[in-house]
TrEMBL record:
Annotated ranges, domain Pirin C-terminal: 193-278
Full protein name: Pirin family protein
Coiled-coil residue spans: none
Family recorded in the similarity comment: Belongs to the pirin family.
Note describing how the cofactor binds: Binds 1 Fe cation per subunit.
Species this protein is from: Herbidospora galbida
Segments of this protein annotated with the region Disordered: 1-27
Keywords, alphabetical: Iron, Metal-binding
InterPro entries assigned: Pirin, Pirin_C_dom, Pirin_N_dom, RmlC-like_jellyroll, RmlC_Cupin_sf
Domain (Pirin N-terminal) ranges: 37-132
Lineage: Bacteria, Bacillati, Actinomycetota, Actinomycetes, Streptosporangiales
Cofactor: Fe cation
Length: 307
């Protein structure tokens, strides 16, 4: 999914881990103009920009909508597409064409550059679009696309866990991860407890229902940042939620529009290359690609975790 804002702000990625829960409100963003699909964006926010390598989180639905996101570029990141209801068709410059359905994972690794489109027919849509920042060791790799219809699951009294990316509770996703990371959907129906890695930081995002997470009541909308230093998390209520976490991402990055880079000049080059068609067309998409917004008047600065 693209960031379709016409005047995107620089995302100042970073922030120190904290052991106490912190409720971070999301903001409503309409993708594709005033009649576009509304999403709630909880990463990046003014208060905290990353959780591990997770640097972008949009949640949407459940509501009738049609997703129409024209071809647009990405660099230096992975897109993680997760659905609860509906179907979305992915196409990209590699020639990939894949419908994603609930419970399946579409993972696109942009590496040095890729473009893709996303479309759905009008109907109920409910899901999340997430980005993972790639480390220096992987951000120049060739672009790639993966579809995983079957993911590892754990069912215990009170909750079920599906691991999308990385590892959690002894389960490891088959999807390619380039940093120590955890991304999982949890359906909770009774009090339960999940093991965590104390050196990692975590956050929870409710997709439906009402959850109790580490003693905090959480409903759809905000992101609950749990910080680091926890060996487990207590869950309760009746809800479907995403648990995101990982080793704190220490590299300084620049995040603007759909690009993750390391300097202002890199972002300028990414934008120029996209405008000149360097990534090529998205086969099968009938329509024009997105134009990149104008760059801000001030130079974009790489930021670290400590603000």
């Amino acid at each position: 999914m693209s960031n379709l804002e016409s005047d995107p702000r620089e995302a100042v990625c970073g922030g120190e881990g904290a052991g106490e829960p912190e409720l971070l409100p999301g903001r409503d963003v309409v993708l594709g103009g005033t009649r576009g699909m509304k999403v709630t964006r909880t990463l990046p926010t003014a208060g905290r920009r990353m959780v591990g390598a997770w640097c972008f989180a949009d949640a949407y639905g459940p509501e009738p909508a049609a997703m129409t996101v024209p071809p647009h570029p990405h660099t230096g990141l992975q897109t993680v597409s997760w659905l609860v209801e509906g179907e979305v068709l992915h196409r990209d410059t590699l020639g990939s064409e894949q419908v994603i359905k609930p419970g399946q994972l579409n993972l696109m690794t942009a590496g040095r550059g890729i473009a893709h489109s996303e479309e759905s027919e009008y109907g109920r849509l409910h899901g999340a679009q997430l980005w993972v920042a790639l480390p220096e060791s992987a951000r120049h790799t060739a672009p790639a696309f993966e579809h995983h219809p079957d993911l590892p699951e754990l069912t215990e009294p009170g909750c079920s866990v599906t691991v999308l990316l990385g590892e959690l509770a002894g389960l490891t996703s088959p999807a390619t991860a380039h940093t120590p990371i955890a991304g999982a959907e949890i359906v909770v129906s009774a009090p339960s407890r999940l093991p965590l890695k104390p050196a990692w930081e975590y956050a929870a995002l409710v997709l439906s229902g009402t959850a109790e997470v580490a003693g905090t009541t959480l409903e759809p909308g905000p992101l609950l940042y749990l910080g680091a230093g926890r060996s487990s998390v207590d869950l309760g209520g009746d809800a479907r939620l995403l648990l995101l976490g990982g080793e704190p991402f220490e590299e300084r990055i620049v995040m603007w529009w759909n690009f993750v880079g390391r300097s202002h000049d890199e972002i300028v080059e990414f934008r120029r290359a996209w405008g000149e068609g360097a990534l090529g067309p998205v086969p099968g998409y009938d329509g024009d690609p997105l134009r990149a917004p104008e760059l801000p008047s001030l130079r974009l600065k790489p930021r670290g975790r400590v603000r």
